[in-house]
Design a protein that fits this description.
The structure holds two protein chains of two kinds. Chain A is of the alpha/beta class. Chain A has 17 helices and 14 strands. Chain A folds into two domains: about 150 residues, Rossmann fold; about 210 residues, Rossmann fold, CATH 3.40.50. In chain A, strand 1 and strand 2 form a beta hairpin. Chain A is globular. Chain B is α/β, with parallel strands linked by helices. Chain B is about 45% helix and about 15% strand. An eight-stranded parallel barrel of chain B has the order 1-2-3-4-5-6-7-8, surrounded by nine helices. The model of chain B has no long low-confidence stretch (mean pLDDT about 95).
Chain lengths: ~425, ~260
């Protein structure tokens, strides 16, 4: 197996993929022929950029001077007392634009600039990746088009306005479940049609090779910082468990990469309505082979989650690999557990988390007996401002805020 | 390598001077009438018929074919039910399945290949399974004699095309434009260029699809290409409520135009 990573030769479990873009049996490049040359061009461009000290220095300076890295590590005394184990939070919520997503988009838009592409296409679920992409595109003076499911546009209106304010055009994805899956479909179709002029800024560790690898490399900084901060705080020790939420899985891959070659237990937490690893089986959609929620005939099922950012039936191929080899463990939590966790962290620590990382905390609450006496590091991947209105509506009894997907639309008479 | 049913049939017609016409239909749309549509297209002069097995996430398809797929899936079509129906149609030309790879992968390569054969389909087009990923499926398909049609796109550098045409069976499907399926008011300049580039590297039948919408565009293309695939222009007529007779009449018009061009 030939390592494609710039960290080649380290024998890390997260060093791959191989030259075919495979993480074990997962990954690959399952795209229309039209996109194959673009994927190859992107792979070459990334490989060359990532080996270039000048590119790395520019990326690093963007992360520090523009995005505000390193993000802090917070030792949560109140919550630890409440739950009976020590809780550390990696504060990705404090990055510019409010989530870890900025790492990846700064890397990709810088790469787009290097490739001479001035038009950026992206998909978004909750709007975090869309806002981050619109931000970076504004910074670099690039044109930006973001596809977002119609359902998500309704439940994340604030982020839609943010993107528009930043100069991006937000286009509704009206097919299928009208959430993240369909936004990816539309973005891929747009990419098929504009591949010669546009750069597709994919928002997670999914899609065709080289995206899962490239996006992981741009997020490695989370794991690297968290490792150093943990050892500094714990007198050279490490946390016992590292927890992260999983939609496509980019924040999880970022923090896992810092600990994968240690004895630390890695836990990815999915929404029960989008548990690709926990309940999916191997399949191919959106460019790669991974675990996928699908019916007996291979039709991709629609995920259903209170969190727009995790409302996705698939998962990045490297997570499928980590699950396959037993290195990481994947758990699923319900919307109701997530809402409780969202409120608990707000109340005990004065930190309003995004609904996405609240999934990680929800599992920690459920597993409190198992975790008793341990030190647990949660990647707090984003802040909850975007979710406050939705949670308020749910708590006031508005059922539409919990599940805004109207499934009648998908049964034959959709637009 | 033995030449398969589809390629044999297409070569024979081409060598007689005929321009090839491959219409596309979506299995399950219009509900109940689609098997009769296939028979009608055969009678209207199709040289082969492409039958789409609907998939939930068709990224190579534009709004028209997406809509037909959504309606067919909404009405409960499954790949298994579609193939059972296809087995019953009586049409004298080769049938080609078009679907996305997960449908095939989920069923299993050997089972899918055999299921196609059992339904009377002799070839498959899997648009999200490019050359680099086609190996395991193609091996299973070759083993039972299902021909795997490969797509070639305008974005491919010249050095990529020989490998694609070498691996292609049945015919080489040239993508006429940089984009998804759908009608266009003008034939893209890439369409004729694609045909020219492919004809320069293969003597397998070269058929161009995606963005071929009218008899005039088809005629313009077959000046260089061996034939055309027409999909969205047929499906749009059905979505507009014209009924299958309207779609069949349109294909008969295409046939007549291509026959005039051949003489």
């Amino acid at each position: 197996m030939v390592a494609a990573s710039a960290d080649e030769g380290t024998n890390s479990l997260m060093e791959g993929p191989d030259e075919h873009g495979r993480f074990g049996r997962f990954g690959g490049r399952f795209v229309p022929e039209t996109l194959v040359p673009a994927c190859a061009e992107l792979e070459d461009a990334f490989r060359s950029a990532w080996a270039d000290d000048g590119f790395r220095a520019e990326f690093h300076s963007l992360l520090t001077d523009y995005a505000g890295r390193p993000s802090p590590l917070t030792d949560c005394v109140n919550l630890s007392t409440e739950l009976g184990f020590r809780i550390l939070l990696k504060r990705e919520d404090l990055n510019h634009t409010g989530s870890h997503k900025i790492n990846n988009v700064l890397g990709q838009t810088l790469l787009a600039k290097r490739m001479g592409k001035s038009r950026i296409v992206a998909e978004t679920g909750a709007g975090q990746h869309g806002v981050a992409t619109a931000t970076a595109a504004a910074y670099f003076g690039q044109e930006c088009v973001v596809y977002m499911g119609e359902v998500d546009i309704a439940r994340q209106a604030l982020n839609v306005y943010r993107m528009q304010l930043l100069g991006a055009e937000v286009r509704p994805a009206r097919s299928g479940s009208r959430t993240l899956k369909d936004a990816v479909n539309e973005a891929m179709r747009e990419w098929v049609a504009s591949v010669e002029s546009s750069y597709y800024c994919l928002g997670s560790v999914m899609g065709p090779h080289p995206y899962p690898w490239m996006v992981r490399e741009f997020h490695r900084t989370i794991g690297r910082e968290a490792f150093d901060q943990s050892t500094a705080l714990l007198d050279g020790g490490l946390p016992d468990v590292v927890v992260a939420c999983i939609g496509g899985g980019s924040n999880a891959v970022g923090i896992f990469s810092g600990f994968v070659d240690t004895d630390v237990e890695l836990v990815g937490v999915e929404p029960a309505g989008g548990a690709a690893v926990a309940r999916g089986v191997p399949g191919v959609v959106h460019g790669s082979m991974s675990f996928l929620m699908q019916d007996e005939f291979g039709q991709v099922q629609e995920a259903q989650s209170v969190s727009a950012g995790l409302d996705y039936p698939g998962v990045g191929p490297e997570h499928a690999f980590l699950a396959d080899v037993g290195r990481a463990r994947y758990e699923a939590v319900t919307d109701s557990e997530v809402l409780d966790a969202f409120e608990l962290l707000s109340r005990t620590e004065g930190i309003i988390p995004a609904l996405e990382p609240a999934h990680g905390l929800a599992w920690m609450i459920r597993a409190r007996d198992e975790l008793a006496g341990k030190t647990v590091l949660l990647n707090l991947s984003g802040r909850g401002d975007k979710d406050v209105a939705q949670v308020q509506a749910i708590r006031q009894g508005d059922p539409a805020a919990l599940d805004t997907v109207d499934f009648s639309r998908t049964n034959g008479d959709a637009v | 390598m033995t030449v398969g049913t589809l390629e044999t049939a297409l070569r024979a017609k081409r060598d007689e001077g005929r321009k090839l016409l491959v219409p596309y239909v979506t299995a399950g749309f219009p509900v109940d009438e689609w098997p009769r549509l296939i028979e009608g297209l055969g009678a209207a002069g199709a040289d082969a018929i492409e039958i789409g097995l609907p998939f939930s996430d068709p990224v190579m398809d534009g709004p028209t074919i997406q809509e037909a797929s959504t309606r067919a899936l909404g009405a409960g079509i499954t790949p298994v039910a579609a193939l059972e129906q296809v087995a019953k149609v009586d049409v004298g030309v080769p049938l080609v399945a078009m679907t996305y790879y997960n449908i095939c992968f989920k069923m299993g390569h050997r089972r899918f290949a055999n299921a196609l054969l059992d339904s009377g389909i002799c070839a498959a087009i899997l648009p999200d399974l490019p050359l680099e990923e086609v190996g395991p499926w193609a091996k299973a398909a070759d083993h039972v004699g299902v021909e795997t049609v490969l797509l070639a796109a305008p974005t491919a550098p010249d050095e990529r095309l020989p490998a694609i045409v070498e691996r292609a069976r049945g015919f080489v499907y040239g993508v006429g434009l940089v984009g998804t399926t759908g009608e266009r008011s003008e034939l893209a300049s890439t369409a004729v260029e694609m045909a020219r580039r492919l004809k320069a590297v293969t003597d397998k039948p070269v058929i161009i699809g995606v963005g071929v919408s009218s008899p005039e565009q088809a005629v313009e293309l077959v000046d260089v290409a061996d034939g055309v695939v027409v999909g969205s222009a047929i499906i749009r007529r059905l979505l507009d409520g014209g009924g299958i007779d309207d779609a069949i009449a349109f294909v008969a018009d295409l046939r007549a135009a291509l026959d005039r061009a051949a003489h």
